[in-house]
Amino acid sequence: MALKIADRVKEATTTTGTGPLALAGAVQGFRPFSSVCSVGDIVYYALQVLDASGNPTDWETGVGTYSAASTLTRTTILASSNAGSAINLGAGPAQVWLDLVASSIVPVLPNGAATIGGGTVTNNLAFKGAANVIFLDASANEFGYIGAWGTAGQPASGIGFVDHTNTYWNFQVGDSGNSVMRGGLQLGGALNTQGVVNYGEVQMRSASGNATSALRFYPPTATDGFSPYLQAFGDGGSLRQINLYSGIAGDQNLLLFDAKNRYTHYYQTNGPFVQVLHNVNASGTAGAVNDGGEYQMALDGRNQSVAIALVELVGQYTQCQITVTDTSGGHGFIFRNNGVGYAPGGWQTGSDIAVKSNVRRLADPLTKMRQMGGYEWERTDGHAPGCGLMAQDVERAMGTQYVHKVRPDKNKEETVKTIDVAGIAAALHHEAILALLDRIETLEGQLADGLTGARVVAPKKKKGA
To answer: Are strands 142-151 and 94-98 parallel, antiparallel or unpaired?
Structure first.
């Protein structure tokens, strides 16, 4: 479907009534509608009725649709001798032709002023070259544009509004040729003295651009001092960041991703912050240390912090290190892939009687000790060798309540038995020692009282004595 405007297109019509017009052939010296129209095309038309002498009587103008071969449907009546309604055609001759009706024409005055759709002419509609529409005010100052312009290798296009000092607030694609932006997209903003948008903009520049590539939203500073922005920029490739910023004193960068230095953080200048340091080096050489990144959290003033780091010693181990720091210093807790953990001050378990019930002494510790062994071993799952108690021994000697099952690999159904080795060993050994002390004290008492149970055997007499 297209709007068709053409010269010298006129046909007779034999239609009666107010319905679609049957086109009956071109009037002498004119062309038929079919020579310029395809089915579905829209046209402006004029229709007139002729009397017996060939003089025009009733008339009509409107928008029509070439709805079928040799058929023009009267879609919209724009004006007519029938008070703006479709004229009722009789049996007499009538003619219909393509026309430029008054309402379809944009008049241009000798001074260059133009109006669309009527109204008072106050501004100009200007065409600056073949590919631009420039809007001018009554003083011929440019205040808006729609178009494409530029030079070879530096094309540009856009829609925008411009004040009289050439400060642009615009939507733009390409390069305007004046360093506003190169090879990208720009949405709104104000230019500084270097011709670079200060705020309210989205820019994407090639390396030939003079200004920093950026995605920025700089609202004007509000009365409360809050002026946030989001930016992603790189000055010649040396700085690549995404930054969510607050203008409130003390807030500063709320979120920053630095692609060059490989870190991401959320923080306030003098407040809490979270920072992620990404991998900055990687080596496959045996013995090389690879920093896999670090996640940091800190409280106000940053003197109290927690850092979680991933470190690889190629060919030996991978470890997670958690470092807790305050004003007096910090210590790291290490967890390695072989299952070994390290705490510089040791691990402690809550043992307050206030959180316990049914407290009782461990019964018959010496018998339990006899049912358990102390072992050393190598692991079948790749973890480091070790020594200690066996869960099955504990289960047999002390019951199932001290043995728990876990699934080390979430992708496997296999479970292994675990025990609190330190707790069991401490309680059992302590009570066993006390039992042995009781026995020693009993023996010592018997010795002191001369009740050892020993017999005095008289020596045998020799024969003949």
So the answer is: unpaired
DSSP 201-220: EE----TT-SSPB-EE--PP
* CB neighbourhood size of 15 (10 A): 18
- Whole-number Cα distances in Å, 23 to 2, 16, 216, 453: 20, 12, 61, 143
Please give the angle made by the CA atoms of 210, 211 and 216, to the nearest 5 degrees: 160
- Using a 10 angstrom Cβ sphere, with 0-12 exposed, 13-18 middle and 19 or more buried, the burial of residue 289 is exposed
Determine the Cα angle at 427 with ends 424 and 428, to 5°. Answer: 75
Going by their DSSP bridges, the two strands 263-267 and 201-202 should be labelled as unpaired
pLDDT digits (tens, 9 = 90+) for 338-370: 778 888 888 888 889 998 999 999 999 999 999
Joined together, the tokens standing for residue 427 give 């309680």
* Number of neighbours of residue 41 by Cβ within 10 angstroms: 16
Please provide residue 371's backbone torsions phi and psi, each rounded to the nearest 5 degrees.
Answer: -90, -5
Distance CA 137, CA 142 (A): 7
pTM of the full structure: 0.44
Find the DSSP H helices in 338-464. Answer: 365-370, 391-398, 421-448
Distance of alpha carbon 26 from the chain centroid: 64
